[in-house]
Amino acid sequence: MLDETVLDLIIAVYAIAVGILFCFVCLKQRRIDPWIAPTLLYGVASLIFYFKIIDEFYRLLADVLYIIVAFVFIIITFHEYYHLILQKQSLIPLTLAMALNAIFPLQMIMVILIAITAAMLFHIYLRKRTPTRMFMFLTLLTVLISLVTAILSGFGIFGAWELSYAVTFVTISFFFATGLSSFLELRLVASETKYHDAYNRAEFYKDLFLHDMNNILQGIMSAKDLLTIRAKTDSRFDEIPGLIEAQIFRAAKLISNIQKLSEAEELKTALTPLDLSVALTKALSFVKQTYNKKNLQIQVNPIDKPLFIYANPLLSDVFENILLNAVKHNNSPVIEIEVIISEEQLEKQRWVKVQFLDNGVGIPDARKNVLLERNKEKFPIQGMRVGLSIVKAIIDSYAAKIWIEDRVPGEFSKGSNFILLLQEAS
Amino acid sequence: MTPQVATIFIVEDDPCLQTLYGLMLEGPEFKIVGLANDGEEAVEMFKRFTEKPQIIIMDHRMPKKNGLDATREILAFSKNTKIIFASADASIKDTACSSGAIDFLKKPFNRAILTKAIEDALR
Questions:
Q1: Coil, strand, or helix at residue A425?
Q2: Å from B79 to nearest chain A CA?
Q3: Which residue of A has its CA nearest to B18?
Q4: Cα–chain-centroid distance for residue A262?
Q5: What residues make up the domain containing A341?
Q6: pLDDT in tens, B69-83
Q7: Which residues in chain A have their CB less than 8 angstroms from residue B112's CB?
Q8: Which of A10, A134, A165, B35 is the 20 to 30 Å CA partner of B120?
């Protein structure tokens, strides 16, 4: 049979080990759980309690710490209960608990408070049925039993002392189970988010193909019909091969876009310092070549030094798509685009800011963010969205930023300003 | 006797398909009275027509306003207008028909199907 001192030492070591492990899982998930403090304090209190063999003062100190631990638990639970369930409607349990303080001695108050807290945790568990909530409830329940058995032990009830120690072991184990299950739950949520994103991406590609491919096939089908019904001498016959060719280029562009979107997702880590001006020059010449029949006036205002940013070869696609968008959605006889490049220092990081200002049709405020989203449920693919989806996917992979403003603030119909913040390579 | 000419309004955001629809419907029996690039423009143009077109060929996925919303607005304004949906998205067929579209053509379709749908709509 183990004596009390050995049991106290085992409990102290176990409680400290669990406290450290609990902290480790909380820090690993980069979330400082409010339960860290009471768990660690519980370990410290258990250790101090062991030193009662030296002086009874340590028992008193440990008891004070146990009470603080219990109060911290109670406050955490009350806080969560208040936000999750009461929602500022009623403070009856809190008021009741405070009223009890005036009536009963401290140990009884603790029992009642912990009982109320355990009931609240059970209520929280019923609302948010997760293993972590369940273990939190069980932890509090065992604390309650432990406290009751300690009181009974004080009255010399047979078996209460042994039960008190056994329950303490269970309590500490539930502490650890709470931390572990919280960690696993977060991993599960992260995994669910990842698969949800993958599902959305697959749906996006499917939608893109179904819609654009059928439109392309419609173009080819219509052109084929026209070739069979129109005489070669017809004045508009010569238009048809050009229309078929346009559909073929469109299909090729669709395939290329899908490939780039997919690459943007995969190349998240392969970022190297790239010369911004090289990518921009490449994009500008592509756009000028594509729209050689349009009256384009593109002005670039660079700064007087070479700028390198963390990117990959898809950077020119970002610039191309923004420029193509500015040309496509522009009814002005002279299409004006101004590219302004500048440097910015934000949150210890140097950024290169690239602004594309156009005199196009503009984008109403309600659509500015929608254009850069890729959620099929909310935003079915339309017109310019495909190109901008590629831009967004690539920019996300650079951990860079993109947003849209009005060229003239408050007057969206006077054109847009696409702003990029790219991480500068030192 | 002068053959009756069906007046047609095309709502389609793809300029290439606009041209091709125009070419497919060229002839004595059809007359294209307007081309709109999106649902919003379609509603505005439709309201401005002094003589309303008999048939509207309506795409669905378009900028600003989609085909379903444009259809509802146009039919609220002129309930006798005959709207034929021409969309790559077959999932909206039932919604299009319940919104008042007289027919639904899933892209790709050929000229024979398009002209038959127009003729059926005019009967």
A1: coil
A2: 27
A3: A219
A4: 21
A5: 269-426
A6: 999 999 999 988 999
A7: 225
A8: B35
